[in-house]
Amino acid sequence: MRITPVRFPWIRLVLVALLATAAPVALAVEAWQAGRRHREAAERALRDYARSAAVAYRQQYIPLFYFAVDHIFQPVSRGSGATAERLPDPAALREAAEVVPRCPDCYPRFRPAYFFRLMLADSTFLVEGPPLSAARRAELVARLPPLGELDGPQPWYTSIVDTLGPEPEVVYLTLRRDRAGTPVAVYGFGVELTQVVSTALRPLLDRIGLVPVPHPATVPNDSLLSLTIQDPGGRPVLELSPHRYPTLYAITIPASRFLGNWRLHLALNPGAAPPFLIGGLPPGRALPLALLVLVTAVLVGLTVYTAWRAHQLARLRADFLTSVSHELRTPLAQIQLFGESLALGRMHSRQDVRGAGQVIVGEARRLLQLVENVLLFNRRRRSGPIPRLEPQPLVPLVRETVERFAPLAAASAARLRTVRLDPVSAPADPAALRQVLLNLLDNAAKYGPREQTISVGLALLDGQARIWVEDEGPGIPPADRTRVWEPFVRLPRELDSHIAGSGIGLALVRELVQLHGGSVRIDATPTGGTCIVVELPGATAAKDTPVSVEEPCES
What we know:
Blueprint: H1 10-77, H2 91-98, E1 114-119, E2 125-128, H3 134-143, E3 157-162, E4 169-177, E5 183-192, H4 193-207, H5 221-224, E6 225-230, E7 236-239, E8 250-254, E9 263-268, H6 286-343, H7 350-382, E10 390-393, H8 394-411, E11 415-421, E12 424-428, H9 430-447, E13 453-461, E14 464-470, H10 492-496, H11 505-515, E15 519-524, E16 530-536, E17 540-541
Parallel strand pairs: 11-13
Antiparallel strand pairs: 1-2, 1-5, 3-4, 4-5, 6-7, 6-9, 8-9, 10-12, 12-17, 13-14, 14-16, 15-16
Helix pairs in contact: 1-2, 1-4, 1-6, 6-7, 7-11, 8-9, 9-11
């Protein structure tokens, strides 16, 4: 559709639209970043809670391990230095382990599986308890001598993990020095890991609160966090809690020298962690902000489209007023001219008077047709649908309309011809359908050449009443066959040739046909003219045998 060229302020409107969109986008980005920073700070605070809980738990079990291990190592960790001949054998450690401590509830009581002593000078390895396999003895002998090179306060305890036995064991160690401070022996004993957990780690987890909650006595640690013992590679070795929570708010720290080189992994329950913070964990705002930006962009786009459409309609209405004024001026001028001639007595013969009267009547009918189009178009825009349609015989309506239009066709030196009139009955509003036909005939006469033949037909095809009007004009280009149905739209060649017209005739045709539940389309003719086809549903044959003269035009 080519419309009268308009100068639309695209650049200015696009700049305003961009600014209107950029402002909420910038605010949304800033809000998103602020929310992200707030959430990251809250997550760091929760991870700090996890670290604090892990350190607190480690600080609680370190003294327990120290006193439990010190109780067993008392025979070798007390007193001044000694020579190799005066060093106690591992049986002294077994005897110390069998002695009940003075405060049995103060620290756990380990039941070691075996005790041993390794002489650093000659690697003599003495075991008290069940014999160790050759592989386990070789592993211990290989790993223990380097401990003699370490310095530290006395008594000095550490541990390693033995995984070569049936069950993992924690091997606790202490170093014995002579009077000169030279390391002479390493003492140790092995405790199964399950015993360490059951006697020390797990009871402590059930007894103390590790995170700040309003009523810690009523909320067990298992509902707030999970604790796992991991090897140096980060693989879980032992679960201290019945649940393993995700690592969203988790921390891993060394498990202390009383658990070898293992590590302690603590993870807060994501569902229970937010209440630790005042106000809770801030919700994610990415989706609401994205929706806000999207809604803003859509609204700005609709505003731009509405402004463009309003500007376009304003120009179309201006073109409509110009076209209507032009179309009104010509017949009015003709009526005035012949009317003045009659009034001044310039028409001397009866034939001249009759010719003037015919011109005046024809132009008056043309004016009436234009006024009826405008009034009907405006009325249809304001009123509702057509009242209930009743079946009507269409042949008399088509004939009456063609006869009514004959004088207007004669003014354009056009010939009217009915090529086919099937006796068809269809639900229709006679006045509306008559207006449809008059508009189609008027367009055919107006835009076709002089002395052309305008063909009108009526047929019953596939349960539809098909009415068509065919002219011998230049036709409508395929690109414009959809757009000419819009109100106030006229083809460029019509504007360039100054052919009078309002641009609402075809728009009114389409609206009236659609109110009948039908359809209308534009087809080309073999001679290059235009054939407009109207199809109305619910049609039936008025007689048994239709009267056929020609087939309807084909696209």
